[in-house]
Specification:
Elements: E1 2-3, E2 6-10, H1 11-14, E3 28-30, E4 32-33, E5 41-43, E6 45-49, E7 59-65, E8 70-75, E9 80-83, E10 89-91, E11 93-94, E12 97-98, E13 107-111, E14 114-118, E15 122-127, E16 131-138, E17 143-144, E18 147-148, E19 153-155, E20 161-165, E21 168-174, E22 188-196, E23 201-209, E24 212-219, E25 229-234, E26 245-247, E27 252-258, E28 261-266, E29 272-276, E30 281-286, E31 301-304, E32 307-312, E33 323-328, E34 331-336, E35 346-354, E36 357-363, E37 368-377, E38 383-386, E39 390-391, E40 399-408, E41 417-423, E42 431-437, H2 438-441, E43 446-456, E44 458-466, E45 476-482
Antiparallel strand pairs: 1-2, 2-45, 3-38, 4-5, 5-45, 6-37, 7-8, 8-9, 9-10, 11-12, 13-14, 14-15, 15-16, 17-18, 19-20, 20-21, 21-22, 23-24, 24-25, 25-26, 27-28, 28-29, 29-30, 31-32, 32-33, 33-34, 35-36, 36-37, 38-44, 39-44, 40-43, 40-45, 41-42, 41-44
Length: 483
């Protein structure tokens, strides 16, 4: 807000997160925490590579065995990996041979204490630490015109495993009174065509709203074709689906439910978040921060303490702002830039593992890995708020700011600081105003000092915050004003 010659940045500035452009709101909110303590801007949690050099190729799918606190993942070559509770990753081996005999991984799920892995044409079952059942079931469609199709998995509230397969939904169900045994067909039923969608559609996501299984789709096996993005609700009993909800775009790529509302990330050209209660479908936000066609993977979505997480990236180099986006209360932020950076990075899977922590798998086209995002806060001034572009004068009567007033909710501690930059136009380079840190000002919660900008008719500010390295503590900015 600019009033009476004073430019003020506070909660009202950042509460709505990233705006469609810096002309109407914040240009960027990156690696920042605006949700956990409303009213203050804090350093967000830091993404730290946890997998070392273990992951050989891009891991698009992960699943959590919660009862044993272990995570399984599979990469593009079909290799299986395990993460144990101390954060150690390893290939899942039988002696010196990887358990998986899948040629690739198009889907992964955990059900009845067994791991299910899908490649192009077949579903495989892994009886953990015991036996690998190769080609356990065959998909009806598998590929279409030699193009791979996603086999996304979902354990429904009815305790049935559902799997996408082109225009079909496969189901795997335990026989009543039996205990599932992949080696005993009397204990389960597999229906490769439990539901069929109209010709041409590809089932890409699975979610649940009430008693409905909701199938997100795209049209045509080529992911960047078509202008159809439809949700098909199915009650799991009827032979067909209910009337679908339709919007335009080249597909629905990620879905996640929150309460009794389904959120969908639609269209790879300019990702849009829609909310649906199966009666209405309303646009919530658009992702306009990545200047390239997006690559959106169906497993790169989850929820963490009421915040929805969408992994949004692109393989196109020379871009920026790839990462995990957070959405809550109508506000979207770039919650986490991953350890690979934000340029030309794809996010394969996002997985909540409890206790406020999540995992994110990624590739930058050369290296592959999995990051842990926990309670360690961002350092190195990587927490960024770029304000709207404010009009503060005219070309003939420009404004000049001489001092900064910084108010914090608690005193600075060692390693913490706030850095301030500005530019007059959105395509100008950033110029430094000053760094206000513990090393210079000590343990204080209010700072008033010289902060010169020169004469400007318009101004955009960039606030950068840092925590100390490897710290769980963060500065808490209440407001900053220039006068």
């Amino acid at each position: 807000m600019f009033k009476n010659g004073v430019l003020t940045i506070d909660y009202d500035t950042w509460r709505d997160g990233i705006a469609p452009s810096a002309l109407v709101g914040c240009g960027m909110v990156r690696n920042a925490d605006i949700f956990s303590k409303p009213g203050v801007l804090r350093c967000g949690p830091k993404a730290v590579k946890e997998s070392g050099e273990v992951i050989e190729e891009f891991m698009r799918f992960m699943c959590h065995d919660e009862s044993n606190n272990r995570v399984f993942g599979a990469d593009d070559s079909g290799l299986l990996y395990r993460r144990v509770s101390d954060g150690t990753w390893s290939q899942e081996e039988n002696g010196a041979v990887n358990w998986s005999e899948a040629s690739d991984c198009q889907g992964l799920g955990f059900w009845k204490q067994h791991l299910f892995q899908a490649d192009d044409d077949h579903l495989h079952v892994y009886d953990i630490e015991s036996f690998w059942y190769e080609d356990w079931a065959e998909f009806e469609e598998g590929r279409r015109n030699l193009i791979r199709l996603p086999h996304v998995m979902r354990v429904g509230q009815d305790d049935v495993l559902y799997i996408t397969d082109g225009r079909y939904i496969m189901s795997v169900q335990e026989v009543a009174g039996q205990t599932f045994d992949p080696n005993d067909s009397n204990t389960y039923t597999v229906n490769a065509t439990a539901l069929d969608l109209p010709e041409g559609y590809v089932a890409s996501t699975l979610a649940e709203i009430g008693t409905y299984l909701v199938i997100g789709t795209y049209y045509s096996e080529v992911r960047n074709r078509g202008n159809r993005a439809e949700l098909f609700p199915w009650d799991r009993v009827s032979p067909s689906f209910n009337i679908p909800q339709r919007t335009k775009g080249n597909g629905i790529w990620q879905t996640i439910e929150n309460g009794n509302v389904l959120y969908s990330l639609v269209d790879r050209r300019n990702g849009r978040v829609y909310a649906s209660n199966l009666t209405t479908l309303e646009l919530q936000r658009e992702v306009r921060t990545i200047a390239a066609e997006l690559d959106l993977h169906p497993d790169a979505v989850d929820a963490l303490e009421g915040e929805l997480l969408f992994g949004i990236g692109t393989p196109t180099s020379g871009t920026e702002n790839c990462g995990v986006y957070g959405y809550k209360d109508g506000a979207m932020t770039l919650k986490n830039v991953l350890s690979a950076g934000d340029d030309g990075v794809e996010i394969g899977s996002v997985l909540n593992i409890g206790e406020g922590q999540y995992l994110a798998s990624w590739t930058d086209g050369t290296d592959n890995g999995v990051d842990l995002i926990s309670d360690i806060r961002c350092d190195g001034y990587t927490t960024v708020l770029e304000t709207p572009l404010f009009t503060v004068g005219t070309p003939l009567e420009k404004a000049s700011f001489m001092q900064a007033n910084i108010n914090l909710a608690k005193k600075l501690s060692a390693g913490q600081g706030v850095r301030l930059k500005f530019r007059e136009q959105l395509d100008d380079p950033w110029s430094d105003i000053g760094t206000f840190d513990y090393a210079t000002y000590g343990s204080v919660s209010k700072i008033n000092d010289v902060a010169q900008t020169g004469d400007v008719a318009t101004i955009q500010l960039r606030l950068e915050l840092t925590a100390a390295a490897d710290s769980t503590q963060t500065p808490e900015l209440l407001s900053l004003s220039l006068s």
